[in-house]
Structure formats: structure tokens, C-alpha cells
Design goal:
Strand content: 15-25%
Largest sheet: 9 strands, mixed
Helix content: 40-55%
Number of strands: 27
Radius of gyration: 42 Å
Length: about 700
Amino acid sequence: MKRTRIFLAIALLASLFSLGLYRSQFAFIEQVDLRLRDARFRVRGAVAPGPEVAVVAVDNKSVKEVGRWPWSREVTARLIENLSAYGAKVIALDMVFSEPQGEVPDRALARAVASSPNLVMGYFFRNEMQQIDPLALEQLSNAKVKFLKLEEGVTSVPLTEFASLDANLPSVAGGARDFGFFNQIPDYDGLFRKAPLLLLYDGNIYPSLGLLGLSRYLDKPVLVDVAPFGVRSVAVGDLPLSVNEQGRLALNYYGGTASFPTISAVDVIEKKVPAQALKGKLVFVGVTETGIYDMRATPFDPALPGVEIHATVAANALDHRFLIRDGRTLGLEMGCMFLLPLLLALLLNTTPRTMVGLAYFSLLSGGYLILNYLLFKHASLDLSFIYPLSPVIFTYVGAEAYRNLVIEKRGRYLKKAFGSYVSPDLVDKIVKNPDLLKLGGEKREVSILFSDIRGFTTLSESLPPEELVRLLNDYLSPMTRIVMEEKGTLDKFIGDAVMAIYNAPLDVPDHAGHACRSAVKMLERLELLNQEFAKRGVPQISIGIGISTGEAVVGNMGADIRFDYTAIGDTVNLSARLEGLTKFYGVQVLVSEATKAHAGDGFRFRKVDLVRVKGKHEPVAVYQLLTGELKFQAQFDASLALYRAGEFASACEGFAAIAATGDKVSELYLSRCREFAAVPPPEGWDGVYVAQSK
């Protein structure tokens, strides 16, 4: 119960701390959270907008065929006239005509503007003060929001305010039906995630190009409700838009550049567009050619043409595809911030195992990430990633810290004491059940590996003590890692010798195979070590390895004040004898017949001899573990069969041929065959070699 209360207290503190972060909105945390939310767009991929919105682009093709931008206003006039002729319901120009071009071209554009029944012209607010034509201001005043509700207590409208603007020439724009600004305001990291629908100038509220285009398309007015805290609502007729208190719409992007049906402006000018391509559509006209358009970095595209942001505003409204971040998302985030850490604390309290706790943490965290994405994809809810997850992280870290500082203090001590020479599996078992450290044992089938450096005494006499210790450390460290990689338990170092146990204390399927793979890896690593030794001017070394498989008694053995986990029995003795015989036979690895039988098909062996080792009466078949292809194996096996049949002269010929290749085993048998050919073995000879040494 005490641990439960502590875990729940940790969860509550984590939630309260995260709530403090949530309210403080530190810039760095906000930026990371925004970037994570941006990633959802890329995971979701591009989606198709509705059919109502299209873009006519002054693109690369248009600039190449018509000429570089800006064009003659007579050309722009023809573009507007043709758009009307194609039946575009609303034309919204993401461009401003603030400088005269000449009487004739300006008059041509003015006629096209006046003749277009639903044309919305663009303009640009700026902070730098400049002289503005009074007639242009008079024209622009008609574009301000007319249906404005100011609630009681509103003393000022909390919108971004500008000091000046770039307006269209009055002579050109006199016949325009409406005007909308095309300013965009990035977040502090430079990305455009929201579009301002309303801006403040000279005490009046003005709508954006996208908002006015939508208003003209639906033939309904823009309605704005302002409360003391900011903008309460923005609507086009009976269609509410999802805006924040600054009058900005979170953009639910459809994709990168050209997400909307996009038609080259030159094709409109030359009337090469299919008859129905623009009929009844809300058409945004803007520049998309590289180097001359306003590039906007978005979650989808680092260089999205600004005209597509206006199109996104209108399409989001027409598709009812608003990115929602309001009281609903706030409630969900608050609920997750308190419920998820509470649930994690209860789950962590049910298990003492760190990996299970990590699994619970990963499951809850991953579940929230998936939920966040699914709500974004299917319901357009813009939930935070960091704030609901941060108390989960803090709870997990706090609970694990408590577990480590209090509950697992003894476990850490045991890991430190035994982890350097006992397999990780055994360490975990000891930590979970310290009673394993009592004296005692069990009989079980194991594989024992014994390796030793050949000629170590001579080597030790030729090196200074410091270099000898360094050489031993350089050799023993990788050999120990290999044993542990192959699920073995390092039993002990006996000087330069290594003894390892496989399949104890925990079950290791294919333990003979793991022991054989250890031997192969040791020899491969030894080759690299010898290359390093040669560079240092240190004598190269060779090793012998013996492996046997069978029953042994394993357990913690020793005295009350000092004991080790080890194995004893004939299987252990045999592996040591086999290691000693590797030098006699001139091979690197010898294994018992039981090891060969249990090792599986992934290894190649050569039967070397029948040996009666010291301390055993029954002969043992020993095999060489081959680390490469043995081209003469068939010839060797045939010669060995002749040898055991007592046909020494014939066997001699086969062994002589193989011995000529440098095979030490064949050299040994060649010597035996010659001896037996001169002095035959006694009657009843069984072909067993009796090893005289350990």
C-alpha cells in the first residue's frame, strides 16, 4: 500500500508540473510540440480538396511564353476577362497594382476589373508609414467588416494592427467589387500554420483575400463577434469558421505545391483551357514561378506559393475541414494529462520488473501517439503531443527512480558484484531471487568450453610484466564478450585459460551450438588480435579449445565467505583434456562426440581419433571443429578406416598425400602407420589412443 500511495503521488506531482509547463508555454517546448504536430501532415500524406476551389498560376510556362513578370496590364486584363468568360464564379487576385503602368494598359485593366461581376482584388498591409492616395483609402473603406458585434466590456480589438498599406491604383480598382488583404503571419519558427482572417488598420477590421473570396462565393456576409478576450467567432453567413482569439484560422493543409487544380495563366489567356474547367469555381490567381512569388514554409512544403494558402482557407471552410483547437481539445489534453499518468502509476505498481514497466510506459505513450494521430486524421482535432505525454514520462522516470533508489538497491549491488563475469541472464535471476547465492547445486546437461593460450609460460618470460598484463587483458576481454554474446556463463579465468558453461543456470536451447559458435568467433577474433599484436611488436599467440557436452553438477560452490557459480564432473574434466589434446593433434578446436551430435547442421566436423583420456576407462571419439572447408576430408576418412582395419601400408599412402599439404593430424597418423607397419600392434588392438597427460 505504501508503494501504491507513493506511485500515485508521483503521478499527481507529474501532472501538476506538466500543467504548469502547459500554462507557461515556454518557447522551446512550444516549438518542439509544433514540430511534432507538423509531422502528422507528412504521415497522413496529401489529400484531395473539394472541387470548388482552383488556382490559376503565373508559372514557369506562363513566364516563358508571355514574358517576365510583371506583365503588361493589357495581358492581365485579358486573363481576367477570359476567366469571367470561362464562368469562374469568383476571381480573387493575390497581387496588387499600386504603381501606374501607362494610361492605355491601366485603362484596359480597369475595364476588365469593372466588367468582372465577382472580382476580389488584393492589397498588402505594412508597418512602414507611407503616403496613401485618399481615393484608394475611400475605396478600401468599403471592404472593412460591416457586420461587427462588439460585446460589452470591449475597449480595444486585440488584432494585429498595421500602420500603412500598399493599395491598388484608384483608377484601376474603381470598379472592383471587393478588396482583401493577402498578408500572412508566420509562427516564431518561420512556418505558416495559421492564416490571419482579420487585421486592424486605422481602427477598422479588414478581412483577408481568402475570407472575402469565400464570402463572394457563398454570397453571404462576413460576421465577426469580438469579446474582451479577443475574437469570439468569425462566420460567413451561417458557416462558422474555427478561429482563435487573434482571428487566425489554423490551416489544415491538403499537401504541398499544386495541391489544388492548377491551370497555367497563359492557357487561360490563349483560351486553351477545357470549357468546364473553371465554371462555377472560386479561382485564386497568383504567381508561382520560382524567384518571383512569395514563398511560404509550411509543414508540408518549405516553399509553398502564397496563393495556395488563400485557397486553403477557402477550401477548408467549403470542405468543413477545419483544424480544431478549442475547448474540446483543451478538455481532451487535460484529461490525458491527469488520467494517463494515474493509469501508468497503477500499472507500474503491479510489477517489479523494469522491462514490464517499460512496456507499460511504451504502450501508454504509443497509444496516445496513435490516438492523437487518428483524431487529427479523422476528426481534424489538433491535440498537443508534449503536454499530455510529459506527465507520463515524468511518472515513469519518478517511479523508476523510486524503485531503483529504494526497492532495487540490493539488486544494483548484486549486479555490480557479479555482472563482470556472470552472464546477464544469471545476473537477472540472482537479482530477482538472491537466495540463489546460497551453497547448493543441481545436475543438468551442459556444454563446457575450455580454452588456453599455447606456450604461455615461454611467452610470459619474454615480456615485461606490464606488457604481459596488457596482452592478457586485450585477449581475455573480447573472449569474455563472445561467451556472453552466445548466452554462456563465464565460469572462471585460470591464468590465461577461460572456462565457460552453456545451459546453466538457465536453459539455453542449442547450448552445444552456442559453445561451438563461441569457439569459431574466438578464433576469428584472435586473428584480428594477432594483427594488432604484430603492429605493437608483441609476439602473436595461438590457442587451443576443447568442448564437451554431458551432465555436470552446477551451482554455487565454495566456503561461506567465498563461493563461485561453477560446474564439476566428468564433462568438465573432458573439456579440459580435449583442450590439452589440441596441441598433440595440431588442431585448434576439439569437441566430444556428444557435442557434435547436439551442435546441429550448421557446423562441419572431422573425426580425429578414439581417445582414452586420463581418468576415464571408456574411449571417447573426438572431432575437430572445422572453421573452413577441408578439401581432403573424404580421402582422410577413407585412410582412417584403413588404419582402423589394420591395413597400415594402404593407410600410409593416403595419409602421406594429405600430410604433404601440411595437415598435422595426417602427419601424426602417417607416423603411427609407419610404426605399426614395422611393429604391428598386439592382437585385439582396438585402435584407441591412450592420452598420457592431462
